[in-house]
Amino acid sequence: MEMASTCSIDRVLLVLELLLNSLRDPYVPFDVTFDAIKHMKFLKTFVMCARKWSLVHLYLQSDNVVKKVSLPSFLSCIEDTFHKYEEDIHSLSLRSEIENYTIGSYNSMFRELEKQIKSLKQEIIQIYFALASSRSFQSNSCMTDDELLEFIDLILQNLADLKPLKLDWALGESSISATLSAQVQALEAKLTFLKSFIPFAKMRGTADIPALLLAHFEVVALNAAGLSCMCSYCDDAEEMQIYEQQQKIRAVDFHVYETYMEVLRALYCSASLHTPRMQDKQILSNFNDSLISCLWELLCYSSSFMDSMNDEMHILYARLRFLRRILREHHEMMDEQNEKIGALLSEVGIILFSPTLSRVIEGEVSFSESTQVLDFCDMLANTNIHIKHFKDQISGSSTIESLPDSSHSLRAPEVSQTSSRMLSKCKMPIAHEVMVGLDDEAAKVIERLMWGPEQVEIVPIVGMAGLGKTTLAKKVYNDSSVICNFHIRLWCTVSQEFNMKSLLIQILCPDAKHSRVDDEFQNLDEHALLEMLRKKLMKNRYLVVFDDVWDIGAWNELGIAFPNDKNGSRIIFTSRSSNVASQVQYGGEPHYLRPLSEKESFELLQKKVFGKEDCPQALHGLGMEIAKKCRGLPLALVVVAGVLATIEHDICVWEEFAESLTSTMVSGTDQCKKSLELSYEHLPYHLKACLLYFAAFREDEKIGAKNLMRLWIAEGFVEKVEGKRSEDTAEEYLMDLIGRNLVMASESRSIGGVKTCYIHDLIFEFCKTEAKAKNFLQVLRGYDELSTFNVPPYLHRLSICSSGEDFIKSKLFCPHLGTLLFFDATPGDEFELRDISFHFCIYKHLEVLNLEDINLRLKELPTEVESLLCLRYLALKGRTMEFIPPSIAKLSHLETFILNSCMTVSLPDSIWNMKNLRHVYVRGDVAIGLSSNDNNVVENLSNLDTLSTLCIYFDQGGENILRRIPNVRRLKIFCLALNALNRACRNMSQLECLESLTLGSFNFSGSREHVELSFPMNLKKLCLSFLGLPCRKMSLIEQLPNLEVLKLRVQSMKGQKWELMEGGFPKLRVLTLSELDFVEWTETDPHSDDYFPCLQQLKLLKNSNLEMVPACLGRISTLETIKVRFCRDGVDSLIRKIEEAQKNYGNENLKVIIIG
């Protein structure tokens, strides 16, 4: 009887996949379609496998009952099942619109198909295992090696379909548990090894894989196929059975090891039997990757190795990764090395599947008892020596080291001698100084020089390195109106290292070189020179420029020579530091130099490349693209122009240059390096580490300042000062870096301070290079860098920016790592992981672990987290995570715990023993346990600074929790009952250190009249939602003496009228009113100005009932912005009247923004 084919299944699968790809059609039932495809692929795998057997009957055992099954009949049954549904499914694919069918009928059809497939499940699994059992004692295979590879590919696809997808929240049963996920990965590793070994053996000269070995591989594949089916339909009771079965599967079992070893030894003892082919390198690479995976598993989960063997294993791992890098290089010289690499991989393959190694891992033999173990260690050491010799040979032949790295150098691309698209010949870059985009900046500075106060004033021009501070100062210094206004103009360049006497001579004799006057000055001491300078300036209106000032040391020594005759004299400082002028007498507000706009950038680039000529129109777009990449920094534009001016002005050449241009290339030039090194070397030691740490983040990333400072603290960069919070010290560090214009603030916090910050691309590249050179931090971007990275000795910090899949696939092994930061390079494609325990097994010395960009599909954090005893900072994402194990308390050094979850997360009561814990931030809700029968405070978290978002229930637990966090500064609370809300509000005043409070609740029914508000007097920021507080109770909030930010959100306040009390809100700067129902907002005395004396920002959002606003808003002199969003037209009119009143009171700068 002819066996069934897969043709019918293939046809149905094709139609279903077409349907799946048309998901935009709302009538296509995605979840059931996906499930049907997944299960049908399993069936396809089975049919492809079973039709290879000549065996007609099988005996299957179930519940101690033996049943005879006809394999041809069973396959025919499968074929009939698909014929039955093929026509209906095909007709569905042809429908553009729903006509007679309903969505329910389609669902019903797919569900019925799935049910039919599931009914075959048990027999399919039994057949797989029966076939495997019958083959176990055979010495020949039923499949050819090509058929076996095809079978393995299908199984691997089935296993891949079991993994979670981006949309698996909609797939129901399509996702699998964390336990099963680990078994799936283990099966994948074993099958992938077989898939890579067979082509490797054939490439190396084995025409036919020995029958015994091929038969064993066939058994492995059959067992894996059976387990993949079990995983697909598994229930909880079968998980342990799957684990036990998976553990028994060995890619190379003991009984075939000798044959396996003979194949590999024959390979590396003889020359290859065929001419090298293009695909050989890929075959070698695949086999090498499989060996790395096998070794990585051994290193992660085995503690059975003695120290010497462990060291050799680590060396072998590093050298396999070196071979991976060699195999990735696209270079002709590497082809001749394939034979040597193949021989080395054969040696490694023999080692990793050695029965001796297996017995050591399983504890069956000890090192002292077995000569086999000693022989194995010798073989391992010799293999490492062989790879080292090969590495030395490769390095000596300059195959790797001398390969050009065009991505890190800024040079002209090579072009042909002639080109049909040539526009003009290259020329030398324009050497003279070109000024662009400084007219408005110069006008502002000149105005301060000529129209400021009569007393002497210092005007600081401040900006980062390369921004054009000196150029602007020269433009102002040589302006005709400035020349006419000042009797004396002097210029000196201070620089980082200055000599007092030389500086004075430079000021007194700016044009002298080696003149007689200069020689006379050399004979005078500093005091005499200071006196000469003072007399020269006395009674004159002078302008003196101090260029490139690094600190106030120079001014402290020179200042006495600059008289204040109150005649409008001025001094200009140019500096990278905003703080220089603020520390000296007569210091004025810094003039912050802005980056050039895109238009100005192109103008500067054009002038530096073409001089007085215009840029050819054909190159205009490319020139704009190149200029844009310089991010408005004149220094970068000048460096790039220096290259463009020396290359052919050909469209192809400029296109190639534009595509290859990166900030790394620009920052690598000597001109940029020297400028940035000056800024870096001038930093105190503690700030150097803080600055270099920015390289750990993604380029152009806006970094949360609070989180950054917590990382600095965890890393040990922040000095501990008696009686001072580390967070305050860290904030001073950040403000110092901002003041030095090395870091830019991008967003401010409503309560004051910096919310987000970033660094310029050139500084980022400098930090990345410097951090790597000093072994401070290694940054890896993308799979190529990840997969070929060899860990240097004593690497402490590693930052990875890649896809989550590449991160896991790279099999990094850095057991001594102290910091691991992962950033997803593809944030739109969320990567999900079901097993994180391997991280805890590998990285036991971690102090900082950030995996926020990987979603852990776990309900509970694995207890293995307790092995990270040094951990100070832990940031994770687990959208479905609900439980944290009690063992987390073993992390006694933990300071920051961040978890991004969509659930209410239960923290164990053991958390109260974590005395170093300072920040607990759960994006969701957090419920903290209290030990049973404990209504008295026993243990507390006196160091806790931040807690978010605390869930409080009905009982007194909430009160007890508040007592246990006496020094908290930032707190978010969500009350689940009216009783809990009342208790929380009543006991809040005991938190004397509290500065920021967010308080919310369910919108439950019941009067709030009895709710007693009692907030601490130090409160600076208050956000309320769903509290339903009567308007009259707002007076208690108005009396808070230090409140700066108040956000009243949806239904936080109930009532028709909110009347402001006179003298209320004495320090309030920001007021947000969102989705409130009140109609009248008034003040007790409309003519009084004693309301909102400090208010700067007012925001109104979706307040549809508001008909009246306080008249005092039109008279508040501090008001800067009013934002109105999605309020009715009447509210817009009220605000326009306020705007008009403000103008009448002289506030022309008020910004009113109305949207919707």
TrEMBL record:
Annotated Disease resistance protein winged helix domain residues: 697-766
GO aspect biological process, one term: plant-type hypersensitive response
Gene Ontology cellular component annotations, sorted alphabetically: cytoplasm
Q: Does the keyword ATP-binding belong to this entry?
A: yes
* Domain Disease resistance R13L4/SHOC-2-like LRR, chain residue ranges per copy: 843-1124
> Which keywords does UniProt give here?
ATP-binding, Cytoplasm, Hypersensitive response, Leucine-rich repeat, Nucleotide-binding, Plant defense, Repeat
Domain of life, per the record? Eukaryota
| Occurrences of domain Late blight resistance protein R1A-like N-terminal (ranges) | 115-382
Grouped into one coarse class, the protein's main location is: cytoplasm
Could you tell me one molecular function GO term of this UniProt entry? ADP binding
Question: Per the database record, which ranges form the NB-ARC domain?
Answer: 440-614
Which Pfam family, any one of them, does this sequence belong to? LRR_14
According to its UniProt record, where is this protein located? Cytoplasm
**What this chain does, per the record?**
Confers resistance to late blight (Phytophthora infestans) races carrying the avirulence gene Avr1. Resistance proteins guard the plant against pathogens that contain an appropriate avirulence protein via an indirect interaction with this avirulence protein. That triggers a defense system including the hypersensitive response, which restricts the pathogen growth.
**Which protein family is it in?**
Belongs to the disease resistance NB-LRR family.
**Can you say what this protein is called?**
Late blight resistance protein homolog R1A-3 isoform X1
* Name of the gene: LOC113736546
